[in-house]
Amino acid sequence: MPEEKVVMYESPQAASIQTVTGWVGDDGRFWGKDEHMARWCGATHRQCEKNPEHPIHAIRSYCQKCHDESRKAKFAAMPVREWSGEPLVIFDGDQYFFDEDSLRDFLVDSDIDLADLQLCICEPNMPREIDPSDVFSDDLPEDGEIRDQQLVAAFELLNEMIRQSEPLSWSEGEYAASLPQSLLDEIATARVTP
């Protein structure tokens, strides 16, 4: 068996003074070769990476102009569908309209240019059926079967009620809404008449 190497604490072999070069952030943290992280920790603002013409933004944020441009492009790329009374939502917003009257009232009172209106047709968020094997997975034996047929029947009844349920809520869908011209004309008229 080879002998274990012994290096004494006081020995010059145990440690030596070295000069180290590397990036140091404004907070004094040493980052070695990682210039990006040193700058990231030391800076408060930065130039937009995609477009240097955009204003600077906080380092731990994002370029608002780029974000707005990307969201505008996303809405423009959405397929358009004629609105037939479904709930609507303002794109990327939380303002929902569940009937024509609330939509009309909002648009008459708002400063939104009707040509710039970004409405999306909503999709329903339906309740999901419940699988008793999932609910009781921690308590079931290895074969995973529920043997109590009354309990199984109760879940089947519950799932039937869930299938017949109305939507729990609504979310922005994949279609942009095209409003009827008659509604747009009515809103434009209501805006000019006091």
Provide a descriptive summary of the structure in words.
The chain is an alpha+beta fold. Among the domains are: 1-43, no CATH class; 44-77, no CATH class. Helices cover 33% and strands 18% of the residues. It contains six helices and nine strands; from the N terminus they run ββαββαβββαβααβα. It has helices spanning 35-42, 64-77, 100-109, 132-135, 149-164, 181-192, and strands spanning 23-24, 30-32, 45-46, 57-58, 80-82, 88-90, 96-97, 119-125, 169-178. The strands form three sheets. It has a five-stranded mixed beta sheet with strand order 5-9-8-6-7. The chain has a two-stranded antiparallel ribbon with strand order 1-2. Helix 3 crosses helix 6. The longest helix has 16 residues, at 149-164. It is flat, with a radius of gyration of 31 Å. The chain starts with 22 loop residues before the first strand and ends with a helix. The mean pLDDT is 90.
